[in-house]
What we know:
The chain has one domain. Helix content is about 20%, strand content about 30%.
Amino acid sequence: MVTATLQLVPRQQVVREVALCSLAEMIKTVPQRVQAGYLYGDFQFEDGARVRWFFTPRSIFLLPAGSCHSDC
Length: 72
């Protein structure tokens, strides 16, 4: 059995930044992203065989709205 305690925070508008990069590159950028104020991060693969970036990894970072960054 697993238990978890969740803590809700006030809703906040965020900006979604997407970059094509390797998992290793994404992991290296996490400390800088946290220091720059990014709230959340994710790593995804495109899953459609007809899509140009099929199985190309993408890093996803969410930054509070009003903040502006654009590098991976």
